[in-house]
TrEMBL record:
Gene giving rise to this polypeptide: pyrB
GO CC terms, sorted: cytosol
Protein name: Aspartate carbamoyltransferase
EC number: 2.1.3.2
Positions with a binding annotation for L-aspartate: K86, R169, R223
Span of domain Aspartate/ornithine carbamoyltransferase Asp/Orn-binding: 156-302
Root EC class: transferase
Amino acid sequence: MGWSRKDLLGLRQLSAEEIKLVLDTAVPMKEIIGRKIKKTPTLRGRSMATLFYENSTRTRTSFELAAKFLSADTVGLSASSSSVMKGESLRDTGLTLDAMGVDVVVIRHPASGAAEFLAGCIPAAVINAGDGTHEHPTQALLDMFTIREKKGTLAGLKVAIVGDILHSRVARSNIWGLTKMGAEVRVTGPATLMPPDIEQMGARVYTDTDAALEGVDVVNVLRIQLERQQQGLFPSLREYSKLFGINQRRLELTAPDAIVIHPGPINRGVEIDAQVAYGSRSLITRQVTNGVAVRMAILYLLTGGETNAIPH
Ligand code: CP
């Protein structure tokens, strides 16, 4: 099958076949970034703008590198240094980029639904790089690529997602994606950070973190959002770490060959111990590399690349 969507807004809308197409397309892209000369002419003459209303290190940089490795022209816009600060609306900002001939706009925004709104305003392709607490589809795709690369499959795997599920767009996109690909998804974390409707998405809620980790193949540790600590949603970082933090003892509850992933940035010693984060089961650095490959695949597919014409 080929890619037929104008935009990538979330994994809720994608079929298992579409997810597989992105993951399969990322395989030869990863080969390109392993080369000494990381450059192909595939997207020469195409252009991508990143439009970020929130901070980012991994997502923004990897999109910029992905576009450059494929020879697309790139421009980066931060809300804080743009005419957004003069009151320009999201719609007008998008129309302005579109009028300059941009083919793809990658947007991160604090409001859930912002990417979908922008996609309806402009003919350029829109990629959701994280919208509020809604979705972060490219993170989940790179997580799934990393898991599949290590385990050979997604179907039948047991995956535990641990932490602040309520505010996590990463958790939502992972649940949509992993369940479609046939994995069993468990979620665990503070009861105050567990959305009431999460089981309707296909995940199983565990109130006991140790029970959730029993025999799993993958532990996906979420960043605890320190900015929410003042809201009284969990008592203290120390208590959070004790009850929900992934440490060596908890890792021993998982399958012997279980892997650990984390979207980053890490709060070392809070949601994950340094021993685990930098240990042999951690694929956190590999996730970052794979983020470039997966974003190359997405740019390629959204700009009309044919899967049989992937550069080798
Ligand atoms: N995982 C992730 O989205 O990281 P950044 O906020 O650094 O982009």
